[in-house]
Amino acid sequence: MRSKPTNVGVTNIADIQTIGQIHNDLKQAFERGGNIRLKLDAVTDADLTFVQLVESARRSAASEGKSFAVTPAPDSLRELLERGGFVSSPEDRSFWLGNAGGK
Fold first, then answer.
1. 3-state class of 13 per DSSP?
2. Structural contact between residues 53 and 38, judged by C-beta atoms closer than 8 angstroms
3. Which of 30, 55, 64, 98 could bridge to 72 as Cys pair (CB 3.0-4.6 Å)?
4. What does the record list as coiled-coil region(s) (predicted)?
């Protein structure tokens, strides 16, 4: 039986002002172990500090053999990801955009 993922929610603003709380929430989820999923559906405004945090969590999870995923990025975040070059490979597009990123 597959374990239910630990969902970590992000409020509508994911920027330098809120990054500390998001970091703490992710850190607690990683400490609990298991599958972790970051829910992005409520994000309406984000900056590069948020993207960098998620990329760091993604790399940490991979190096520790943990499962870390995000729900598909909303359009507001997708534009930032595209401008920053974070969805240039098929693997990155799939991570950030889910099935919609397979193009």
1. strand
2. no
3. 98
4. none
pTM of the model: 0.89
**Pairwise CA distance, residues 64 & 45, whole Å:** 30
Q: Is residue 30 part of a domain?
A: yes
Closest CA to 48 of 84, 72, 74, 92: 84
Q: Which residues partner with 46 through β-bridges?
A: 14
**Which residues are within 8 A (CB) of 56 and not within 5 positions of it... i.e. 6 or more apart?**
none
- Round to whole Å and give the CA distance between 10 and 41: 8
Which residues are CB-neighbours of 82 under 8 A, at least 6 positions away? none
- Total number of domains in the chain: 1
Which domain covers residue 74, as residue numbers?
A: 6-102
